[in-house]
Amino acid sequence: MNIFITGASSGIGEYVAYEYAKDGVHLALCARRKEKLDQTADKCREMGAKVTTYSVDVTDQHSTKESIDDFLSKINRIDLVIANAGLGELDALHKGNPTMMNKVINVNVIGVQNTIVPFLPTMLKQASGHIALVGSVASHIAWVGGGAYAASKFAVKALSESWRKTLPKTIDVTLICPGFVESEMTEKAEWKPFVIKTDVAAKKIVNALNKKKKMFIFPWQWHVVIAFKKILELLMVNAARKVYKKRYKN
Q1: What pLDDT was estimated at residue 249?
Q2: Which of 36, 48, 75, 163 could hold 9 in an S-S bridge, CB 3.0 to 4.6 Å?
Q3: Whether 149 is catalytic
Q4: Count of structural domains within the chain
Q5: Half-sphere exposure of 48 (CA within 13 A, CB side)
């Protein structure tokens, strides 16, 4: 089995790599921080996997494509691509500077496209493959102060839905929507309800990928929150329609 994972130096990407690390698996692990990436790779090798590493920034289309081409040259097929690299930062609107917001969009959206799209000709040729996009519960709910992050994750959700409709059914598309997971990204968050450990999250993600789920939201509490949001919005829309019809019926 040949698997390509971005953001593999820490957090979800690191622990998902550990879940897949075993004999017969060739992992391509990508991240910007070479030292941390090498530590992940060494542990995966100890667990029996063959590992190739690429120190790359997914916002750099050229270097990401070079890494992908190199990995494809080493294997006879690609089974799974996990676009996990992501950035979570608050908007800090009071500063009047959109630089960080732009960076969030670039990493979380452009980075996903740079990771997935170059693999598609190979998947189409082999008539198989599985692409996994790591979104967030923020793909469904925009948080206070997190407009750019939510926008990026809404975009990832849109990409997953469109690609699933566009690509042949022989290529699986999964959108992973975690809530708060213990990681470097969330350690600064003061409010993180339903937070779960990284190793637990990784096991849940791999289980969902094995089942070829179209979308996986976890932990379960977020299903309730998102469902309630949809019901509340529906009630509000229906109420607004009644007011609109009453006001403009003549």
Answers
A1: 60
A2: 36
A3: yes
A4: 2
A5: 8
Q: Please report the pLDDT score of residue 229 as a whole number.
A: 72
Q: Are residues 133 and 238 in the same domain?
A: no
How far apart (Å, rounded) are the C-alpha atoms in residues 5 and 132?
10
Helix (H, G, I), strand (E, B) or coil at 78: coil
How far is Cα 130 from Cα 138, in angstroms, rounded to an integer?
23
Residues 118, 231, single domain; the answer is no
Strand residues in the chain grouped as ranges (E): 2-6, 26-31, 50-55, 80-83, 129-134, 171-178, 215-218
Q: Specify the pLDDT at position 196.
A: 87
* Residue-range definition of the domain harbouring residue 202: 2-219
Tokens for 100? Answer: 């960080």
Residue from 18, 20, 54, 149 carrying the catalytic annotation? 149
Segments of the chain with pLDDT less than 50: 250
Q: Is 182 exposed, middle or buried (0-12, 13-18, 19+ CB in 10 A)?
A: middle
- Coil, helix or strand for 216? strand
pTM for this structure? 0.87
